[in-house]
Design a protein that fits this description.
Helix 1 packs parallel to helix 4, helix 3 crosses helix 4 and helix 4 packs across helix 5. This protein has one domain: Metalloproteases ("zincins"), catalytic domain (Collagenase (Catalytic Domain), 3-Layer(aba) Sandwich). The model has no long low-confidence stretch (mean pLDDT 92). Strands 1-2-4-3 form a 4-stranded mixed β-sheet, sandwiched between helices. The chain is of the alpha/beta class and 147 residues long. It is globular. The longest helix is centred in the C-terminal third of the chain and has 18 residues. It is built from 5 helices and 4 strands, in the order E-H-E-H-E-E-H-H-H.
Length: 147
């Protein structure tokens, strides 16, 4: 299994997550989900970058904490190989949320990673029942991976 981790950018302000820990946790999440042979692209960006992506792809002109770009569906899905897609995490948003939630930045990045990977695999939280299933899976993965 391959986790391709990029970032964070040098211009990003604030604390930085432990990249090796995050990559190790990403591999553990993939194993827990039955995707031990999959590849994942994980990008750590600043608020400005994720805000531009959020505007371009979702029409939301503000930063968000995590975005997912699945390659499991769409016009080129058959060409993806083992790559599931991209998970993009704003470390600036993650740091703010970590402070508010009294968590470490590494733990907040794990929370966002789990959420993003579940979106790659088709989970959603638009409807109540979907949201309940996704939250339950997030909790299960957290317990299995957070060590």
């Amino acid at each position: 299994m391959t986790v391709r981790l990029s970032g964070p950018p040098r211009r990003a302000v604030g604390p930085r997550p432990d990249r090796r820990l995050l990559a190790r946790r990403a591999r553990a999440v993939l194993r827990e989900l039955g995707h031990a042979r999959a590849e994942l692209s994980l990008l750590l960006v600043d608020d400005a970058t994720i805000a531009a992506l959020n505007q371009r792809d979702r029409g939301q002109p503000a930063p968000t904490d995590v975005l997912s770009y699945s390659l499991l569906e769409g016009p080129h899905a058959e060409c993806r190989g083992a790559l599931l897609g991209d998970v993009v995490i704003s470390i600036e948003s993650a740091a703010r949320q970590a402070r508010r939630g009294r968590r470490t930045l590494d733990d907040e990045c794990l929370r966002l990673l789990i959420h993003g990977v579940l979106h790659l695999l088709g989970h959603d939280h638009e409807r109540d029942e979907e949201a309940r299933r996704m939250r339950a899976e997030e909790r299960r993965l957290w317990r299995r991976v957070h060590a």
